[in-house]
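ESCALATION

Customer reports they have been waiting on this structure for their group meeting. Please prioritize. Original submission:
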Amino acid sequence: MSNFRTALIAAVAVAGLSACAPTVARQGYQAVDANPKEVKVGEDTKSTVLAKLGSPSAISTFEPNTWYYVSQITSTTTYHRPQVNSRDVTVVSFDPASEQVTAVKALDMADGRKVAFNDRETPTRGRELTVLEQLLGNVGRTVMPNTEENQPGGRRPD
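Update from on-call: job pushed to the front of the queue and completed.
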């Protein structure tokens, strides 16, 4: 009976400790056959980069000749928010005329910046009604009867 208790306590302890293990997730571009840093400036073109790396994670909005390959690894422990462990961004720039690679830049977590969002609300037009005004707002208003004369798209009386 003592061996059974010891085994049961050990099993509960292992199960309890495994519940605290972080869940690791990989998002974005996953380099399988080719690494984005292996793209050669002056040799590769848009079509060869597409063949080597596949579609980019993002294309620059204002400069369509700049492609981004983004990947990150996050870990989540129990109910906590995910924590970013590593982030790699490879920026590939192309010449607009010849479509050849002009620059390849590798960025990581140290190159990132925190963006301060503005939490103010945009004012809306109009006035705010009280609960009483909302409830009694339509009292006394008459409803037009449904006749052919006031139906949109209906026939005109001759």
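Sent to customer with the following note: The longest strand covers residues 83-94.
Escalation resolved.
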